[in-house]
Amino acid sequence: MKSIDETSKYLEKLSAQEQLQWAHTTFDEKFVLTTSFGIQSAVLLHMTVALKSRKKPKIIWIDTGYLPKETYNYAEELTKLFDLDLIVAQSNLSPARMEALYGKLWETGERKDLNKYHQIRKIDPLDKVLLELDVHCWASGVRKGQTKNRQSMSHIDHIRDRLTLRPLLNWTKKDIFYYMENNNLPQHPLFEKGYSTVGDWHSSEAENNISKGRSTRFGGLSEECGIHIDENNFLGEGI
Questions:
Q1: Structure confidence at residue 239 (pLDDT)
Q2: I need a surface site. Which of 26, 137, 139, 148 has the fewest CB within 10 A?
Q3: CB 32 within 8 A of CB 60
Q4: Helices (H), the chain
Q5: Could you write out the DSSP letters of every residue in 118-183?
Q6: Which residues belong to the active site?
Q7: The domain 4-237 is classified under which CATH number: 3.40.50.1100, 2.160.10.10, 3.40.640.10, 3.40.50.620?
């Protein structure tokens, strides 16, 4: 069996579609995709339609309960368009209960509170579903150009005792735009309003003269929510 480094070098030579096919063939029902139904999400989801298999991989969507209405509508549109086998991951704590116990964690300006928010609403729900499905490998749409942390990522790596695949790792914003245009894919409604990335309604904003890309998220406190990085780094460094 190839080492993780050898596998990553092998995958780097493949197209994004071929990487997805490799993972789906290799891990079968133990392979899933995650999606945020964000600005670029349609690309990876569209690629699942062309996978050669009797059954599509499951798609895990982390619904924090704080997404913009545009994202919820977009999720409905893409789910129907691609006939997704969708699983919704949600926190055991409702938004109202969390706020009653801990307050509005995103408003304090403290990174530790933002990390706690992400742990409750994103990381724990995802880990729970991955465990229940006995997932061995999961794919996401992260790209090197999004954050400093992602610049050093590989096409496949270990995250929280599982393999994570990144088929779009070397894609640029132009690659995303032209793929969507060439395949006539619907844009997220907030894209036309100047958003280049979107998460929760309280922690996302359109690009402006000061903030661009991921710096428009989380009030500038962070560029990551912890899903795509090692848990120890997230808790220890607050990335």
A1: 29
A2: 148
A3: yes
A4: 4-12, 16-27, 41-49, 69-82, 95-102, 111-118, 124-132, 173-182, 231-237
A5: HIIIIIHHHHHHHHHTT-SEEE----TTT-TGGGG--SEEEETTEEEE-TTTT--HHHHHHHHHHT
A6: 225
A7: 3.40.50.620
pTM for this structure?
0.86
The residue extents of the domains of the chain are: 4-237
CB atoms closer than 10 angstroms to residue 104: 12
Average pLDDT per consecutive 10 residues, the chain (239 residues; last block may be shorter): 84 96 96 95 96 92 96 98 97 97 93 91 95 96 73 84 93 93 95 83 70 51 59 43
For the chain, the farthest-separated pair of C-alpha atoms sits apart, in whole angstroms, at 50
pLDDT on residue 229: 65
Report whether 170 contacts 11 (CB < 8 A). no
